[in-house]
Write a structure and sequence with these properties.
This protein is mainly alpha-helical. It has 2 domains: about 70 residues, no CATH class; about 80 residues. Helices cover about 70% and strands about 0% of the residues. Keywords: Membrane, Transmembrane, Transmembrane helix.
């Protein structure tokens, strides 16, 4: 029984390692294709080049959402919302960038970068929320150790 459980755990580790290898390979291939496209060594469309990045997003999302959700630390009743918004906003930016780079300048660059601005504002709001959550109340004082315990682990 113990051997079967150990074998199952090792296969799970192999699958996670393979998933990480695929994700890193896709990210490397996107970088390589992007450099070759910018040097005019490739004539692929921008949709093909960014396709590897979108496959990378799918592999990472598969790994992220297949894990059990971590439990929130004590006295923390909120989660960083920018972590939920990150992937959709980044993909929206990449799609708008592809539309712009394909030569049909239908989309203005201000619109292309709008998802990134929204993402930065969400990060700013989350950081302000986290700072307020760490601040002691009127009657209480907070030590450095207590502050480090309440910080989210990433």
């Amino acid at each position: 029984m113990l051997i079967q459980r150990g074998a199952r755990m090792s296969w799970r580790r192999v699958a996670k390692s393979l998933q990480a290898l695929v994700a890193h390979g896709l990210l490397f291939s996107f970088t390589l294709l992007l450099v070759l496209k910018l040097d005019h060594a490739l004539s692929y469309s921008w949709w093909t080049i960014f396709g590897t990045l979108w496959l990378f997003h799918m592999v990472v999302a598969r790994g992220r959402f297949s894990l059990p959700a971590p439990s929130a630390p004590h006295n923390r009743h909120w989660a960083p919302s920018h972590s939920i918004l990150a992937t959709p906003l980044l993909i929206a930016f990449e799609l708008l960038l592809c539309i712009h780079l394909e030569g049909s300048y239908v989309v203005n660059l201000k619109i292309v970068f709008l998802p990134l601005v929204v993402f930065e504002v969400a990060i700013l709001i989350d950081n302000v929320r986290m700072c307020r959550a760490l601040m002691p109340g009127d009657e209480e004082s907070l030590s450095d150790e207590a502050i480090w315990e309440t910080l989210p682990v990433s």
